Queue: 3 jobs
Job 1
Amino acid sequence: MTPLISAEHVAKAFPLPEGNELTVLHDVHLNVREGEVVALLGRSGSGKSTLLRIMAGLIRPSSGRVMVDGKELLGTNPGVAMVFQSFALLPWLSVQENAELGLTARGVDKATCAREAETALQMVGLEGFESAYPRELSGGMRQRVGFARAFVMHPDVLMMDEPFSALDVLTAENLRGEISDLWEQGKFPAKSILLVTHNIEEAVMLSDRVVILGANPGIVRGEVRIDIPRPRKAKDPRFAALVDYIYTVMTNPEAKVGEFSANAYTEQPLPLSRFPMLPHARVGGMSGLLEIVHELGGREDLPELAERLRLEVDDLLPTVDAAVMLGFAKVEHGDVQITPEGTEFATAGVDRSKQLFAEHMLKNVPFVNTVVETLRQKKNGKVDKEFFIDILDEHFTEAEAERQFQTLIYWGRYAQLFEYDADEEKLYRVADEPSIAPVA
């Protein structure tokens, strides 16, 4: 079957003020076929929304192409409609007029616009609110108008860019369930759905395939097929197992994404890197996470922990990644488990926690040893920031190298391994640097 829409070797780079480029997507392949729901799942920096807009024809790719029904897309894609996170309603138009907007823009006659909008508003439960204005509606009702506006277009592919993330938990769950019901009952006014989300449970609940993207730049790491019969229940053991598997894959950015086994799965060993990427996490967040896991008995299911903390994947995973990198925790089958070292760190006083953090940085973060040894070899104990940025540039994009440097400074300050003078742009040794031998 010819895909309704496909991205072939798509890459996208945006110019930066200093004259170079930020590569957001690299060599991405993605197909969407009739009768399927595809979810794009990835962290910040994976280019999910950029890819969605390229496939909608709103942004041109830097290289590669988008094919629609076997023909290259050269402008906006007439076969898609979009639902945005921010509702994007026109406040001076009524609910009815907002719902008609897409058809009006296409020059459809007034009677047809009114009829299609009324039908769509009934589908999303807004009959009786046709004459209301967006300011009179709750967030959930405004998003329903957004869905109605897309439904009237009867698109080949409905694209949804985190459509539930701006809503409270109960409203999001209710609207998500209604959309799922329409799809399962065969009443959905689109042939396929392409969904961008941060929410793993949402992806497993709604989709037939979950495409997992890597970040900086965005690449397709692989996909997971969701073979659970509809309607789906979050308490189903296989549902929970799939969610756990995806959490595990996403907490290991270099792990291979493969087919999910019905009974068990094995985590792929991570390739060694000279300077692994530092997760952008705060020390207080790590300590708080470890303390909670410790109080819960030392092991906790990641999806349940995310729900308990009311955190999205982008917020939770960097903190988990950092704790794992430093040896304070490990992740197995979607569970985070605190290590003895993590327990000591979470329960120690301030001075001991700083010492432990320094020890584990030197043991587990190779670049920290490079920084500390370089500073020790300088008579004045100072080294230009640019020296370390040049090293990081060999492993990361320019923008990510800067972010890596800032995270390094934050961690190093807490551990009292080194300091940073922002005016001089120099790192320097602190007078009371802990007497900890570096680890090779």
Job 2
Amino acid sequence: MAYSLDNARPLLAVALILLVAWLLSEEKRRFPLKLTIGALAVQAGLVLALFAIPNSQALLAGINAAVDGLASATDEGTKFVFGYLGGGDQPFAALPDDAPPPFIFGFRVLPLILVISALSALLWHWKILKWITRGFGFLFEKTMGLGGASALAVAANIFMGMVESPIVIRAYLDKLTRAELFLMMVVGLATVAGSTMVAYAIILQPVLPNAAGHVLVASIISAPAGVLLARIMIPEQQGEGAGYDYSSDLKYENATDAIAQGVSSGVMVAVNVASFLIVFVALVWIVNNLLGLFPPLITGEKPTLQLLFGYLFAPVAWLIGAPWSEAVAAGKILGTKLFLTEFIAFIDLGAIPVDAMSERTRMILTYAICGFANIASIGIMTGGMTALMPERRPEILSLAWKSLAPGFMATLMTAAIVASLPAGLFAK
């Protein structure tokens, strides 16, 4: 396993992220040193456990095979409903017989969200996902000192997303302290939902080996980073947040009810994703056309929103591990993730040809953008939480925008931790 300055530089990024969080802290005299060591150890330990242990590559290959199987099953359902638009037989000779079906986002990715959402609800009803979530909750409780409800909410965020996870602990929402509420927001923005996680993997699969494994690991190990940054910015008061158990308020009557509610939730997610993509792509087109009225930059390039993102976030991309030669291209992806959505960022990352970006940089960016922390998500999160906790609406609104910075920095911190590890660890 090779180790170089490219692996050491991201450690500086981790230190700078912790410094920024401390500067934004409400109580700068209470820096959680023990939690910092524990969170970093949990992140590094989970990466090593998932990539370095014997037969770990077989496990990741199994994850990718499972994603392929889900995608294939979804394709069959999509073909049945949408015919050739969903990859079925062409009504005319538009493509050679041996050519792959056209990749139409609305018919290849959005249906996958429905299937995963229904499957997640079914696995929760069968207590499979519930016990996995409790296992992670127990890990976070013991290593980072979280109360039962907070630990369970943090673990649920890994698989269920920022709107669904509060439902898991609905019975405890009125008991959450301000610090715990903020922590739940930050972790929600630092992770992604299982329904979208698989969609990201499908988008990256053609250009990144073990894409599904990386996306899954990214969502898992960003949770401790979110906990740490949230605790630095708003420390928990002494004696608060203790004594909660792991009981959950999320229940289904039977398997049929779980599938029905899962599909219903998936429809809302799919519609939201499609709507935001339509609107944000349209807005980017408008802004880029307006920027086209300005003269070319010093480099001779035509100004675009993505190019401005590239120059603005290039130093950040370089700090977390990307080589300077690829920093502008990587910066475009980071800026797109923060100001547009992570879905557009994943689509743009997947569209970069294999020979135009190194596999290591592409892997680092996968971890850096695998989280819901973007401007649009603030509206989604506040809408979902205020519906569950209308009596805490002012408190939620006051904390929402404050949670965006640590949510974004958490995924950057995750990417930096991964980039600091020897490159040979992630060999195919």
Job 3
Amino acid sequence: MSSEESVRIRGLTKRFRSSWRTHSEVLAGLDLDVPRGTIVGLLGVNGSGKTTLLKTLVGLLKADAGEVRVLGDDPWKMQAATKRRVGYVPQEVRVAPWMSVAEVVRYTAAFYGSQWDQAWAEELLDRFRLERRDRAGTLSGGQTQKLGLVLALGHRPELLLLDEPVAALDPVARRELLATLVQLADETAGSDHSQTVLFSTHITADLERVATHVALLKHGRVEIFEEMDQLKESVQRVRITSAGPLPDVVPEGGLLHMERDVRTLSATLSDGGVARWQAWAAAAGAECAVELLNLEELFIELHGGACDPPGREHDDAVSAALTERGLP
């Protein structure tokens, strides 16, 4: 594993028992390299394997096949020294409900010793507007998520893994979290401990605001891993209008999606072949406008029609699989 990679995955496969005689393959030979110092957004429809991937990276699930390295270590047998370099926030944060916010923070800090940055944790508590004396059991879902973020960030981890970290947050808290991620990345840029962030989200506008790279999961594999700017430049849409009927035959290659009638046509292209379509439109005496897509539009186009939500069978299989580590 290169020192320039925080995460290296080759051929990762993970299956869950979906019935007494069949298994559901959630990750199917997945490959991924996450460069050190990047903020990587993990995109995919429900059931595409985002949560399974993140749980495998922190050692909550064991891979059925393939090689996984997190900061050079095997996550299933991760050494304590490596664990202290990783921060993780699951979709549902669970803390002792009888403890106050301050007590939860002190309890977590004890596991990290001198590595824990209490001043930074206090700053985060203020930033997320969490009252130290409030009982954890009385916090709202969004407040509990904020507390989970404080616990994951307090030791200033080199690798931060976040599973839908903003789903339960209000818009102000979401902006605070995103600003924090950028701040940490800027503070550590170029150092031997550059912070890397891998986070899944359905809120593409947030991802577009902070991510340096995008990883798109589809059918259990990473279909696309690109720098944000390169990805946005690689997919474009042309809108063609004509006073008369357009030719039936259109340019070949790179066509993701097309809608047309007799005199208008909209085509989404993935190969940068806009010039061919402009020439085609000119030859037909039509006008051609080129548009850049935002990340949400890109996500929909790159997934095509395969955006149906999964059934409960997959969720039940994931829950059952947690028994591998005796987890609830």
